[in-house]
Design brief:
Shape: elongated
Helix content: 25-40%
Largest sheet: 8 strands, antiparallel
Distance between the termini: 80 Å
Structural class: alpha+beta
Number of helices: 11
Number of strands: 28
Radius of gyration: 49 Å
Strand content: 25-35%
Length: 720
């Protein structure tokens, strides 16, 4: 009964879950249909909404009604939001859909697109997260490499240069001016208009293409130069280009070759269409400099922008600062006005001159930031290159049975040696082969006194004895570094004995190479004159002293005491001092690297004590040594003071360490035989090299944490 009841509940529960899921899927389908048909289903209810205006005199305590959109307004707003969504303007799209939902909380199309917008934003953020992760890992790879050197390459004069169509047209016009020859030109105290008219007619006649050259007078309507009769010239057979150069110099004018004409104009004239008005945000320090030199002449003055002819800033009004930028050209109609109340500079000039003003402002801002913040970003890199190598080659001979080979042997069956009688055949010699009753096989009698002591020969006797070493036993055991990972069991090949040759030859060989490079690249920012400490360490505690407690009837106890913390790793102490005048940074550097190497072992006593009274001595304990372990460390440190330019890198190297270990085991006499003796030797070597390179880069940063290069990149991005 209970099982049937529970089964029924499960069926009902599953059916309800399926119904809810189906309803959710159906809602999604309807939402997509609404999104596809443009929200027509929503237009009808919205159209039925009637807006009624209440009289202004009627007061009510009811909450204010939500804004209601007309059907057409809602459709237009949704269409605008969908277009924002398609154009990837997700912030604008989200704002539009939320505005629709405020007016119509149940607008299915707005809901659907708001969900899609959120999904699109989430996808973009995921891509940005992946890009940030990739960039962070790329910075790790870049940290391994030293800073690139500045290499001056010779200019590439052979490569083709790209010329814009406008520049090409100007070059073509210049070539035409140089090809047209003026046969004769005679003027005495002539007017520039008459000279230009004569040159235009002569150029048309002398031009091989009969097209001539258009020569225009610009900016001379109110200029006294237009009516001046100051041109006196007499030339023969000169190009039109050279003639224009002489004529404009006599009249204190200038000419400019355009794509389809030549413009003759006053020296300071700029077409009004070429003047642009740009505003710049100026930091207070630069603004104070501008105010201190306000009132300089030139340009159009303050009247052009603000209608205030006063150049004084005592009342906080606009100031004419053209004189501050005296090295910049200020043609007629140009101006530079500083508004101290808003810390803004308004400049009207040509694009070329605006670029010069921007360069001056950038330099002034950089110098002011240096004096204001005087913060230094320290980027340190500790790179340790480790390389290790291990080699081993050994031969081990093992003899079996009596060792007889080619008539020579270590023992003759039935014969043993006794000190008084020499070799004798008396006695019992075990020379049988291994079997159930004699598992050891033949034995060799070697005792010089009795001759009855035995050394078992089975499974065989090594010519090296029991003290032959290999790479796992011959070298000092290390706890850290590349050498600590090298070693282990070498490869072994055994040439087994036969009935004709009662011996084995075991050949062991190993060859290893490895690297273990370590990089630490911390970064810190500190104020000028303040010490910055960078620690990339593991903190460990070690005892500095031990106390041995002893008693007459108690076991001695060794107690460590005076614990001290040790930072194992990289520690850099640096104190930067900024010299704003010379654009340099003084650095007091103290890098230090500490590694734990092992313990020195000291014997403080023995685990032995006695119990009982004076008449009964009862020693206790196993007599083992009571050892004191004192840690020792490897420290590599540098302390120096240097002066470097802003943004430069100082490299400290030379902390080189090389370690070599070798062993050689051989059979006496046989191992010294030339060439053949190598078969009776075991040799091995292990070596490691370490090179620690420390580099420190110091760069001044502003209160936003940006370097000068980063500020320049930001300016270029804003300009583009």
């Amino acid at each position: 009964m209970n099982k049937t009841y529970i089964s029924s509940l499960l069926v009902v529960f599953l059916a309800g879950a399926q119904t809810i899921r189906a309803q959710g899927d159906l809602d999604d389908v309807f939402a997509q249909l609404d999104a596809a048909d443009g929200g027509a289903a929503q237009s009808a209810p919205a159209a039925a909404t009637v807006q009624t205006a209440q009289p202004a005199a009627v007061q009510t305590d009811m909450p204010a009604a939500k804004p209601v959109l007309a059907a057409q307004d809602e459709t237009d707003l949704l269409a605008r939001g969908v277009q924002y969504y398609k154009d990837d303007q997700l912030v604008e799209a989200e704002a539009v859909f939320e505005a629709v939902l405020v007016a119509d909380p149940y607008n299915r199309k707005a809901m659907e697109y708001l969900k899609r917008t959120a999904q699109k934003v989430s996808a973009k953020e995921s891509v940005l997260k992946l890009a940030s992760r990739t960039q962070a890992l790329a910075e790790v790879d870049a940290s391994w490499n030293p800073d690139s050197k500045i290499v001056a390459l010779p200019p590439d004069t052979d490569g083709p240069k790209k010329i814009s169509p406008d520049e090409q047209a100007k070059l073509n016009m210049t070539a035409r001016l140089q090809k047209i020859t003026i046969p004769s030109l005679d003027f005495r105290e002539a007017n520039i208009k008459d000279v230009v008219l004569f040159l235009t007619e002569t150029a048309r006649r002398q031009d091989p293409s009969k097209q001539g050259v258009n020569i225009l007078l610009l900016g001379m309507e109110d200029s006294p130069v237009e009516d001046a009769n100051n041109i006196t010239i007499s030339i023969r057979d000169m190009s039109l280009y050279e003639a224009l150069q002489y004529i404009v110099e006599m009249a204190s004018l200038k000419f400019e070759v355009q794509a389809k004409a030549v413009a003759v104009m006053p020296v300071g004239y700029v077409p009004p269409s070429d003047l642009k008005l740009v505003s710049y945000v100026v930091i207070p320090e630069v603004g104070s400099e501008l105010e201190s030199m306000a009132g300089g002449g030139g340009g159009g003055g303050v009247d052009d922008l603000f209608g205030d002819a006063s150049a004084s800033t005592s009342s906080g009004g606009p100031a004419d600062v053209v004189g501050f930028f005296s090295i910049v050209d200020w043609p007629e109609g140009s101006s530079a006005v500083y508004q101290p109340n808003f810390h803004k500079l308004f400049v009207k000039n040509t694009p070329k001159n605006l670029k010069a003003v921007e360069d001056i402002l950038d330099d002034l801002e950089d110098e002011a930031i240096k004096k204001r913040s005087q913060q230094v970003e320290i980027v340190a890199k500790f790179v340790e290159y480790n390389e290790g190598a291990l080699e081993e080659l050994g031969f081990n001979w093992t003899l079996y049975d009596d060792g007889t080979f080619a008539g020579l042997g270590l023992e003759s069956s039935g014969t043993y040696y006794q000190n008084a009688q020499g070799y004798t055949t008396s006695g019992t010699v075990n020379d049988s082969t291994p079997n159930a009753t004699n598992p050891t096989g033949p034995t060799l009698y070697t005792d010089p006194v009795t001759g009855y002591s035995q050394i078992t020969q089975s499974p065989g006797q090594s010519l090296f004895g029991q003290n032959q070493r290999n790479n796992s036993t011959a070298f000092e055991s290390l706890q850290t570094g590349i050498l600590a990972t090298m070693g282990g069991a070498p490869a072994e090949m055994v040439l087994s004995n036969t009935s004709s040759f009662p011996f084995d030859l075991a050949i062991t060989a190993m060859e290893q190479e490895g690297t273990a490079d370590v990089l630490s690249a911390p970064k810190v920012t500190t104020k000028s004159g303040n010490e910055a400490i960078i620690r990339v360490v593991e903190a460990h505690r070690y005892p500095q002293d031990y106390d041995v407690e002893t008693g007459q009837r108690t076991a001695p106890v060794v107690k460590p005491q005076d614990w001290e913390d040790y930072d194992l790793g990289v520690v850099l102490k640096v104190t930067p001092v900024v010299d704003a005048e010379s654009n340099t940074i003084d650095l007091d550097l103290q890098p230090e690297i500490t590694k734990f190497k092992g313990y020195d072992i000291y014997v403080a006593g023995y685990n032995s004590y006695e119990t009982g009274d004076s008449d009964s001595f009862n020693p206790q304990g196993n007599g083992a040594e009571l050892q004191i372990l004192m840690p020792y460390f490897e420290t590599r440190a540098i302390q120096t003071q240097v002066t470097i330019a802003d943004g430069s890198t100082i490299v400290m190297g030379g902390l080189v360490d090389e370690r070599t270990e070798t062993f050689r085991d051989q059979v006496p006499f046989l191992g010294d035989i030339p060439y053949l003796g190598r078969l009776f030797r075991s040799e091995g070597s292990r070596s490691s090299k370490k090179n620690l390179v420390i580099s420190v880069k110091a760069t001044q940063v502003d209160d936003r944490g940006m370097t000068r290069d980063q500020r320049e990149m930001q300016r270029q991005a804003a300009a583009n």
